[in-house]
Design goal:
127 residues, alpha+beta, endopeptidase fold (from Nostoc punctiforme), globular
Length: 127
């Protein structure tokens, strides 16, 4: 069973891919592993500051399917056509929520609607 409390110890760091030091994609990768889902590439060294996350996301997008929010779906946040942030949908007590890792706040969990409003409804989900 998935335990979201594990992630309360996470510290955000750009490029973090090894628990408990995780950036947004590091968190996605770790949660997918804990949910027993197929692993996505770890994109070690890829960060958003240099446009690398967007470049790799666009290349990888051909290997995943767009979906609605569902457990394990990756929430990709866009600014126009650029991927600027990633998060993951989790199930807590039968309610779908979004978990993200960001500088200054580390890991937060929120309702999908709140997450989508934060990113001005420019969120698409992939599985």
């Amino acid at each position: 069973m998935f335990n979201p409390d594990k992630y309360l110890t996470v510290k955000w760091q750009m490029g973090g891919r090894v628990f408990p030091i995780l950036d947004c994609y590091g968190l996605v990768h770790e949660v997918r592993k804990d949910l027993g889902l197929d692993e996505w590439p770890d994109f070690n060294g890829v960060v958003s500051d240099d446009g690398g996350m967007n470049r790799e996301a666009q290349l990888f997008r051909n290997r995943v399917a767009e979906t609605g929010p569902c457990e394990g779906a990756v929430a990709a946040c866009f600014n126009h056509q650029l991927v600027v942030h990633l998060a993951i949908v989790i199930n807590i007590g039968g309610q779908l929520m979004v978990m993200e890792s960001q500088k200054g706040t580390n890991v937060t969990i929120m309702e999908i609607q709140r997450f989508e409003r934060r990113y001005r409804n420019q969120v698409r989900y992939f599985k």
